[in-house]
Amino acid sequence: MRVYKGKHINFLPDDYTVVDIETNGMDVNCCEIIETSAVRFRANERTAAFSCLIKPKSKISPFVTRLTGITDAMAQGGRELLPALTDFTDFLGDDIIMGYNVNFDINFLYDNILSELGFPLKNDYFDVLRMARRTMPALVNHKQTTVAEFFGIDTDGAHRAEKDCLICADVYIKLRKYLSGIRP
Question: Could you give the residue numbers annotated as active site?
Answer without folding.
Answer: 159
